[in-house]
Amino acid sequence: MAKKKSSPKKVFVLDTSVILYAHDAIMHFEEHDVAIPITVLEELDNFKKGNDSLNFEAREFIRLLDRLAKGHKLDEWIPLQPGKSSKKGKFKVLMDLDSKVNALRIFNDNKHDHQILNAALKLQESESDKQVIFITKDINLRLKAKSLELVAEDYETGKVSNLNTLYTGKKIYENVDNKYIDALHQNEHIPWEDIFDKKPVDNEFSILKSDSGSVLCYFNAETKCLEKVEKRPVYGIKPRNAEQTFAVHAILNPEIKLVSIQGIAGTGKTLLALAAALESRREFKQIYLARPIVPLSNKDIGYLPGDIKSKLNPYMEPLWDNLKFIQNQWNETDKEFIRITEMVNKEKLMITPLAYIRGRSFSNIIFIIDEAQNLTPHEIKTIITRAGENTKIIFTGDIRQIDTPYLDSQSNGMSYLIDRLKDHPLYAHVTLEKGERSELANLANEML
């Protein structure tokens, strides 16, 4: 038999965007080697100060590199995991940017991106027996790399493989026996084996239909039975469809500690989350409502006038709008209206930038994170690990509406969360499908 030809050893060259996405990215290339251009370290130096997640990732990577390189020179191949039984490859910092194919000259610009490309090109020349692969979250930089005949790929770790099969939290079952639907309407609990051949996902919602009616229900992760889901208003807000009803149920269910609500603009994600949180306010000491700051045109908030509060107000305004909408369901003299004002004044209800909660632990609170699609998987994990006793966390967002340059619908933290935590008894997810803001908003979503 002919001997099978072995594939060449791979060397992955990482761009700055990969490090800022996940500081431990160099540990996720199995037995292959990893190279870091010196220009990447120069760029990370500009990110090391600050409280934003990018600053955190930069600092953590620098510390990781310092630990791994102890006793070595950075321009030599250093084991990523010392030890004879290690299955990890090696890494080095690329110092030589003098490649035959000069990206600085070709693109006529001495940008850091082009210096990084030169480092990868030089490595490809010097390590001709290996396959050099350039890894970056920057789509435009990938295109430039490919134009220079460099193999270029996205960083795939933590990326959802198929968005079309992403868990929605709901299923519809047709032709269900009328007796089960009648029993659920009578608030009986039905063992899942009586209706389904396969066990449902924990806390999954269902619409059961027969020739004479239908019922909304969910699979209780603790009792392993189907139970009816009642449509109920929360703090003056009435669910307008089945998915909204499911979302309210998940938030009000004390056994579910983590909820994600996904949907396009106008489906009521944030409004429902806030209204349900207000409805369950007696169970918690505080309600926190936060969102990541994504500056317009990727500018730092320093370009905005005023003090820090004035700078942050534009980003928090959508959250205040939802709170005002709920409050305006009543007259100014009604106790519900007054209660919201008092909660804000006494800081029982806090609206704050997400960056301000880093490093804190939260107990006895309900925590709503809006625009969660703009978070990385690591940021999602960091937030959840902040949860103390009797804390409930709700993520809301639209995974197809990404506002940060190095995330997409498959690599953002919310998609990662939905994909990884489905079927956990502490978690429930609902995808809102129908826009309820207005007929005009629905027209824009459907036709434009």
From TrEMBL:
Residues 10-143 form the PIN domain. It comes from Mangrovivirga cuniculi. This is Ribonuclease. In the N-terminal section; belongs to the PINc/VapC protein family. Belongs to the PhoH family. One of its GO terms (molecular function) is ATP binding. The lineage of its organism: Bacteria, Pseudomonadati, Bacteroidota, Cytophagia, Cytophagales. Keywords: ATP-binding, Nucleotide-binding. GO terms for cellular component: cytosol. The keyword Lipoprotein does not apply. InterPro entries: P-loop_NTPase, PhoH, PhoH2-like, PIN-like_dom_sf, PIN_dom.
